[in-house]
Amino acid sequence: MPGGSGPAVPQPYGGGQVSSPGSGSLGDILERVLDKGIVIAGDIRVNLLDIELLTIKLRLLVVSVETARELGIDWWEKDAWLSSNQRELEEENERLRDRLAALEEGDGARRTVAGPEKKPAGERSNRSRGRHG
Amino acid sequence: MAESGSYLYAVARDIGDVPACLTGVAETAVRAVARGGLTAYVSTVPLTQFGEDALRRNLEDLAWLEATARAHHRVVGGVARAAPTAPVRLVTVYSGDEQVCRLLEDRSEEFGTVLSNVAGRQEWGVKVYVDPKDAVSSEPADEGGTGARRPGTAYLKRRRTSLRSRESTWRAAVERAEEIDAALTAVAVAARRHHTQDPQLSGRDDWMVLNGAYLVDAGRGQEFAALTGTLAGGGVDVQLTGPWAPYSFTAELGGQSTETRA
After folding, report:
1. Which residues in chain B show pLDDT less than 50?
2. Which of A22, A39, A63 lies closest to B201 in CB terms?
3. Residue A1 domain-assigned (yes or no)
4. Would you give the end-to-end CA distance of chain B in angstroms?
5. Are residues A90 and A68 in the same domain?
6. Residue B203 contacts residue A25 (beta carbons within 8 Å)
7. Residues 6 or more apart from B93 whose CB is under 8 A from it?
8. The pLDDT value given to residue B119
9. Beta strands in chain A (DSSP E)
10. I need a labelling partner for A71 at 20 to 30 A (CA). Which of A81, A125, B121, B207 fits?
11. Using CB atoms within 10 A of its CB, is residue B44 exposed (0-12), middle (13-18) or buried (19+)?
12. For residue B86, what are the β-bridge partners?
């Protein structure tokens, strides 16, 4: 979703500057815009994100993602919170791909929802019956 | 339902106009919403990017986060150069300008206090680093003898001395950092400590022993910067950043709200 409507103007990317933070390095900026500044509790209607939770993880992640990779630190990839969205997306992708494959194998344009679903359901019940018996 | 919201960057003393046509997050135009002597700087943002669910995804997208943080920071900086300013936390989005107006009315007293505290003042950042390698390289070399006869003992001895030396380097650096902090605080109106960044994650090999923010009268900025320059040495590296909008000194409003909520 962000890809399609993202800003077309190229933004300077600060990834490589991490090791030589001058005035206003990305890390310094994030430290302030994410960590400091007024939080007006109770009034926000649109986004009630728990920024406090995001803050630490994101700051560490963003400040040093390149450095961390070089050092072999990859905790964010295993972190349930940070990677859950991606995993969900991957699973959804897989489901959709299976569904598409099933549809393509099936009777072309005809709506064959019952067709591809019946077979796996039958297999599953057979298998479970076997396990119980 | 609603497809856009009002993204709030900062609240400032009413100075009339938006300084020099600022561009905000997602390339949106920044405008001023004024009420009762206060001006809120906002832009209209699509909820496809700034709604709650979208933000969950986007905040994990480093390129998006960087672009957004830099744009937010640019607007806050632009406003802060023109008027006493209270920066607002990244990605604070209201359903519309009416709600922002209501915020200015409801919290005018608190904003007034915060803005008086920062009027005519700037924030400076100072980080102090110590290089742990200094400790190791300044080790006296093994004076022959032991090393040749008993390599194991010599190794353990070297290792112990090295550890002790790292520890004392660290302790000396922390002490030095305290002195530096005290010297800077003497020139500043207020001081805050940020978390020091982990050496592995700060992108520098050396240890950060101080990550301070100092609120300094605009008239003493040069003095503060010059002082910082004289404080390096003695085994530590001192890095100055700024001047910043007073991000670290406007939290009172948020602090109070959070406390009353808890």
Report:
1. 137-139, 254-262
2. A63
3. no
4. 32
5. no
6. no
7. A44, A46, A47, B5, B6, B7, B8, B45, B47, B50, B51
8. 95
9. none
10. A81
11. middle
12. B11
A32 assigned to some structural domain: yes
Using alpha carbons only, give the angle B63, B64, B69 rounded to the nearest 5 degrees: 100
Residue-wise pLDDT tens digits, B210-231 = 999 999 999 999 999 999 999 9
Name residues of chain A where pLDDT drops below 70. Answer: 1-24, 41-90, 92, 106-133
Which DSSP string corresponds to B118-146? HTTEEEEEEEEEE-HHHHHHTSPPP-STH
- Within 13 A of A51's CA, how many CA atoms are on the CB side? 23
Pairing of strands B4-13, B93-94: antiparallel
CB-based contact, B29 to chain A, within 8 Å: no
**A72 and A53 share one domain:** yes
B:39-68 residues touching chain A, CB 8 A cutoff? 46-52, 54-67
- A94: buried, middle or exposed (CB in 10 Å: 19+, 13-18, 0-12)? exposed
Task: Check residue A49 and give its pLDDT.
Answer: 55
Domain interval for residue A28: 17-78
Mutation for B interface: A18, A25, A46, most B CBs within 10 A: A46
Whether ipTM tops 0.90, in short, is no
CB contact under 8 A, A19 and B204: yes
Dihedral angle over CA of B68, B73, B74, B77, nearest 10: 170
pLDDT at A21: 31
Which of B67, B197, B241 is closest, CB to CB, to A11?
Answer: B67
- For residue B56, the chain A residues in CB contact (below 8 A) are 49, 85
